[in-house]
């Protein structure tokens, strides 16, 4: 499958486009676009602007995911992870961050705050049924397959 082309609008020339930070990276690192730094207290949330708008082609979506290093070092993550950017959305890309750590986290302009993964979308057709096919697992849920 060829790589989709994503059109990007920047709110300001100083904004760096998201980029893959290694040869095998699946996600493009997204950066904060801030006039002043943001402090996120423990258990606090913040909407952090990126200064970007994107045009994702039909048949694809953008998945906004946390950066593992921020989660490990600071407890910073994305509460609605993965956040979904639909192909018909053309608004500002803001990242919702939550601080699950014990210390305030300071976000500065240009900090890498999230990853953007572009993925194909498969839309399902739901069909109402009278019954579902049986399986060995059945309705056994949370933790039923072991640790």
Can you describe this structure in just a few lines?
By secondary structure, the chain is mainly β.
Key structural traits:
Deoxyuridine 5'-Triphosphate Nucleotidohydrolase, Chain A; 4-stranded antiparallel β-sheet; 147 residues; 5% helix; mainly beta; 3-stranded antiparallel β-sheet
Textual characterization of the structure:
The protein has one domain: Deoxyuridine 5'-Triphosphate Nucleotidohydrolase, Chain A, CATH 2.70.40.10. It is 5% helix and 33% strand. The chain contains 1 helix and 11 strands. The chain has one helix spanning 68-74, and strands spanning 7-10, 28-31, 38-40, 45-49, 52-55, 60-65, 76-77, 83-85, 94-99, 105-107, 112-120. The strands form 4 sheets. The protein has a 4-stranded antiparallel β-sheet, with no helix packed on it. A 3-stranded antiparallel β-sheet has the order 4-9-7. The protein is globular.
